[in-house]
Amino acid sequence: MSATPISAGPAYTTQLGAAYVGDSLRLLGDLPDGSVNLVVTSPPFALQRQKEYGNHDQAGYVDWLMDFGRLVHRKLCEDGSFVLDLGGAYQKGVPVRSLYQFRVLLRFCDELGFHLAQEFLWHNPSKLPSPIEWVNKRKIRAKDTVNTIWWFSRSEWPKANVSNVLTEYSARMKKLLEDPAAFYKPKLRPSGHEIGLAFSTDNGGAIPSNLLQISNSESNGIYLGACKSLGIKGHPARFPAKLPEFFVRMLTDPGDLVVDIFAGSNTTGMVAEAEGRKWLAFELSREYVAASVLRFVPKGMPESRIREIYARILRDEPVSIEDELGFQRQLIAV
Q: Which of 67, 3, 14, 85 is nearest to 318 (CA)?
C-alpha cells in the first residue's frame, strides 16, 4: 500500500489505499500540508430529522462543516480540488427551502480562501418523492431529485482534464461526423458562435455538461448483496460509483492521492483503486468501515473467510487485502 501513512493504524489496506476508523479532523491532521490532490465526499446532510448516520441540524451545520473545510484547504496541493456533494433541505415545519448549502459555498470562499471552480447539479431520477408532507400528502411541492455539488479549488487553476470524462455523441452528432457537409456549413451563427470546420472533428466523445444525471439505484449491487448475504447492515446513504468516478477521472492523474473524509461505504476508495489512484478513507463508524471491506474482497472468496475478515476489523485487527489475495491464489493453486 503506497498511500500517505497516518499515525493511527488502518482498519484495512489494499494495493493503493487504506481505510481508517476515526475522527476525520484528527486523521486529516496527520497528513502533510499540500499532499492531497483531491478530496471528494458526501457529508451527512443538514436535515431536520435525525438520521442513523449522524447528520447535524441546520443551525450548527455550516459551522461544523467549516472546521473540515479549513483543514482540507491546508492539505490540498496547490492545484488540488475539494468536491462536496450536498443535498437540499426544507426549513422545519414549512414548505420553504433551507439555504444552508449556499451558506457553505459563500463561507468556504469568503472565509477559507477556496475558489468555486464550477458548480454541478446531480440529478437522481430514481430518488423517491420527499418530503412526504409537502410532496405526497399536500401535493404543494415537486419532488426533490437534485443535489448541489460544489467543486472548490485551492488555486484559480486546479488540475482538470475534461477529455477524461467525455460522453457518448448523440445520434445526430454521429451522423454529422459521418457526413459534415450534409448537415452544416461553416459560418458565424446569430449567437456569436463561429462554427468552423473543426466542429466536424471526432474527438472521441462530447464534452459533458455540469448536470450529471446518475441514478442512485444500486440496491442490487455487489456491496449490498454481500451485506445481505452476511446478514450485516450496509450504509443507508451511499452515492453511486459514477459520481466520484467522474471527478476522480477529471481532476486527478494515476498515482495521485484521493481522500474521502466521510467515507461511509467507501465508494470513493473503490473507484480510486479501479482508476489507479492512491486513496485514503476516513469514517467514524467501525461498523461501516468493516462492511466497506466487502467492496475489495477477492472474487470467489469463501463466505466463511469474508466473515472472518469482517469480524477482524470489528475487533480492531488490521486486514491486508493484498495478503488475502495471496491466500486466495494459494487456495486456487491447491
A: 14
